[in-house]
Specification:
Layout (H helix, E strand, L loop, with lengths): L9 H17 L4 H29 L1 E3 L5 E3 L5
Antiparallel strand pairs: 1-2
Helix pairs in contact: 1-2
């Protein structure tokens, strides 16, 4: 049976990213580990960015009278 990895929430990804940043800022990380941590941090940052963009897209839509989602625009 395949073991499907649970997708982390935005908050969990952000927490892991903050831990890596603190570790790298400390400066006591061997170069190979620092590179590996940096790569993981970049993946986490990309995931967080994608989740934020997805959330923004959802927030910017409203349900119209027909029950369909459409872009929400404030006319000034």
């Amino acid at each position: 049976m395949a073991n499907k990895e649970k997708e982390l929430t935005f908050e969990e990804n952000l927490e892991k990213l903050e831990e890596i940043v603190k570790k790298l800022e400390n400066g006591n990380v061997p170069l190979d580990d620092a590179i590996e941590n940096f790569n993981e941090a970049m993946k986490l940052a990309k995931t967080c960015d994608e989740k934020l963009k997805n959330a923004e897209e959802k927030v910017n839509k409203i349900l119209n009278e027909d029950g369909k989602l459409e872009e929400f625009n404030i006319e000034e």
